[in-house]
């Protein structure tokens, strides 16, 4: 895979191997699927656990049953590797968590790697930068349990805590859609580096007439925030009526429809609310 610039890495449930998760990689430029990772010891050694990011890096954790687990970032396109602080035993990050970097450049001095659990309002993060002596990151991993309100269960059961869904990182801030009327920016600018949730008014885009449902993704491209919408006719997910893309105008805090994204390609994760360009 040397020389491949655009690579998609993802985990696939291999039903022919005891339902075990299998790491797959797809090269967009070569249009080829890679199922054998033996040539990538950083991924397959010691039953390592991996998370992909929209920024092209992968978070790799080498588990240890009795001590802290070694963690690092790995770029499958360049094979570059950045050491991270060890994950202490109390941190149990679900394998299905969403992972992203706060900056496009992993070597940015303020870059953090952040993971969001899918089912619980938990997030883990640590700084990527080195401590100056060639070792790992300068800060330890932190767990933060956030509260963005409750999710009302339609069946009438007690509400559960809402979780961050579609996310994208722009120049150090992580954005997500909070409701049909507002969005939220998560930043780590305070001295304690604890996340701060700052809400601002943004109306969700309207769907065309006759299209009552759909899927949305937040995508970072060129340090700008985009919203990709796949809209269904009625409530039929097999009948796509339109695909629209919007760019966030932060000066007016509004979504603006765009007709062309140039030579960019948006990669949208089905069922996972993660997008990349």
UniProtKB/TrEMBL annotation:
<dbReference type="InterPro" id="IPR005174">
    <property type="entry name" value="KIB1-4_b-propeller"/>
</dbReference>
<feature type="domain" description="KIB1-4 beta-propeller">
    <location>
        <begin position="25"/>
        <end position="274"/>
    </location>
</feature>
<dbReference type="Pfam" id="PF03478">
    <property type="entry name" value="Beta-prop_KIB1-4"/>
</dbReference>
<protein>
    <recommendedName>
        <fullName>KIB1-4 beta-propeller domain-containing protein</fullName>
    </recommendedName>
</protein>
């Amino acid at each position: 895979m040397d020389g491949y610039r655009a690579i998609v890495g993802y985990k696939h449930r291999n039903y022919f191997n005891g339902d075990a998760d299998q790491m797959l990689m797809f090269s967009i430029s070569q249009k080829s699927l890679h199922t054998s990772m033996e040539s990538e010891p950083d991924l397959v050694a010691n039953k390592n656990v991996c998370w992909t990011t929209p920024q092209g890096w992968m978070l790799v954790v080498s588990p240890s049953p009795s001590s802290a687990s070694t963690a690092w970032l790995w770029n499958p396109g360049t094979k570059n590797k950045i050491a991270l602080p060890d994950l202490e035993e109390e941190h149990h990050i679900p394998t299905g968590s969403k992972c992203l970097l706060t900056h496009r450049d992993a070597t940015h001095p303020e870059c953090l790697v952040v993971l969001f659990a899918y089912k619980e309002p938990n997030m883990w993060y640590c700084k990527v930068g080195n401590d100056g002596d060639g070792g790992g990151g300068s800060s330890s991993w932190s767990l933060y349990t956030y509260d963005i309100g409750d999710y009302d269960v339609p069946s009438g059961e007690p509400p559960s805590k809402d979780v961050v869904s579609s996310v994208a990182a722009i120049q150090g801030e992580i954005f997500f859609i909070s409701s049909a009327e507002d969005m939220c920016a998560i930043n780590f600018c305070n001295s304690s580096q604890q996340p701060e949730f700052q809400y601002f008014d943004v109306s969700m885009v309207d769907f065309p007439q006759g299209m009552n449902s759909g899927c949305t993704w937040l995508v970072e491209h060129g340090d700008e925030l985009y919203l990709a919408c796949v809209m269904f006719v009625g409530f039929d997910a097999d009948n796509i009526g339109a695909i629209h893309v919007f760019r966030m105008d932060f000066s007016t805090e509004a979504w603006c429809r765009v007709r062309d994204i140039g030579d960019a390609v948006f990669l949208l994760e089905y069922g996972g609310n993660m997008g990349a360009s």
